[in-house]
Amino acid sequence: QLVESGGGLVQAGGSLRLSCAASAVIFSINAMGWYRQAPGKQRELVARITRGGTTNYADSVKGRFTISRDNAKNTVYLQMNSLKPEDTAVYFCNCNALRIGVPGANDYWGQGTQVTVSS
């Protein structure tokens, strides 16, 4: 229902751009966001954007990461610059939306994409 792309291996100081597209069964999307989970750690919010474009970021990524969305394409992006080894994690896309056949709005998750930053 949510398909991420753009992860990979990059050296410290480099950049990556993640994309996440919602399938056609997902509609009327409210907030969209990116979370990450490093080995042995809990999943944490990285960045979030409302339908109207209001954003919020984890303190650890402010000034380096930028979240954006294309409502016409039901897609959210995460531009990651000045990457650090501590940014290494599996990154998950999330949205709160309606789904065909399911009553009410629910949270949906992508399968995750690995981001590895080497020192």
Identify the notable features of this structure and list them briefly.
eight-stranded mixed sheet, 58% strand, 0% helix, elongated, 119 residues
- Poorly predicted tracts of residues: none
Q: Into which percentage range does the β-strand content fall?
A: over 45%
- Please state the structural category: mainly beta
Average pLDDT, all residues = 95
Largest sheet: 8 strands, mixed
Based on the structure, what is the oligomeric state of the protein chains? single chain
- Structural Rg: 14 Å
Summed up, what is this model?
By secondary structure, the chain is mostly beta strands. It has strands at residues 2-5, 8-11, 16-22, 26-27, 32-37, 44-49, 55-57, 65-70, 75-80, 89-99, 102-109, 113-118.
Would you give an account of this structure?
The chain is mainly beta. It contains no helices and twelve strands. The strands form two sheets. Strands 2, 4, 5, 6, 7, 10, 11 and 12 form an eight-stranded mixed β-sheet that branches.
